[in-house]
Design a protein that fits this description.
Order of helices and strands: HEEHHHHHH
Strand content: 5-15%
Mean pLDDT: 77
Largest sheet: 2 strands, antiparallel
Low-confidence stretches: 9-24, 159-178
Keywords: Signal
Protein name: PAR1 protein
Distance between the termini: 49 Å
Signal peptide: 1-26
Number of helices: 7
Radius of gyration: 22 Å
Shape: globular
Strand order of the largest sheet: 1-2
Number of strands: 2
Number of domains: 1
């Protein structure tokens, strides 16, 4: 009887132990990351970590890692590898999260390269969503990269479908499905 009872409770005990160990180890918490691991990391809650610079009264620069409001798509507990940082043309000490770099042809060349685009899903997901926020479809931007990326970006921006504003006169049931990042 005792062995029957222990066989039934073993999976429950194992699950409880796994949850306790994870809670004890903590997973990734942005606020606990240092300057060299913060940028392009994803917390155990799935929020993206951002590096911020604060200047103390003494004039000293202090770098702090914080959780952003931006969530990663299907990623948790992720610190980006040095290989992906280099392949995608990024810098570990990047402050904040911005789509500005998408306007730089050198950056988009690296982002769209097979070494980055096919091997670094965290970075591709981040910039896919940043590009979508600017009305740009990242695969189209990468496709235009073969020609003139600035011109391609301008063309993509100007020809993209944009959801109507509240005063547009379009029917309220007009909807556009959100684009999904490539897998």
């Amino acid at each position: 009887m005792a062995s029957y009872f222990s066989l039934k409770t073993m999976p429950i005990l194992a699950l409880a132990l796994a949850l306790c160990v994870q809670g004890t180890l903590g997973g990734i918490t942005c606020e606990h990351l240092n300057k060299d691991t913060c940028a392009f990391a994803v917390s155990s809650l799935g929020t993206r970590c951002v590096l911020e610079k604060h200047v103390r009264r003494s004039g000293e620069d202090v770098y702090v890692c914080r959780s952003s409001e931006i969530e990663a798509d299907k990623l948790k507990d992720w610190i980006e590898t040095d290989q992906c940082i280099e392949a995608c043309g990024l810098d570990r000490h990047t402050l904040g999260i911005s789509s500005d770099s998408l306007m730089e042809s050198r950056f988009t060349q690296k982002l769209c390269s097979p070494q980055c685009y096919e091997s670094c899903p965290n970075i591709v997901d981040l910039y896919f969503n940043l590009a979508a926020g600017e009305g740009v479809f990242l695969p189209k931007l990468c496709e235009a990269q073969g020609t003139n990326s600035r011109r391609g970006l301008a063309e993509i921006r100007s020809s993209g479908i944009v959801a109507p504003g509240p005063e547009s006169g379009m029917p309220s049931n007009y909807m556009i499905a959100p684009a999904m990042a490539p897998l």
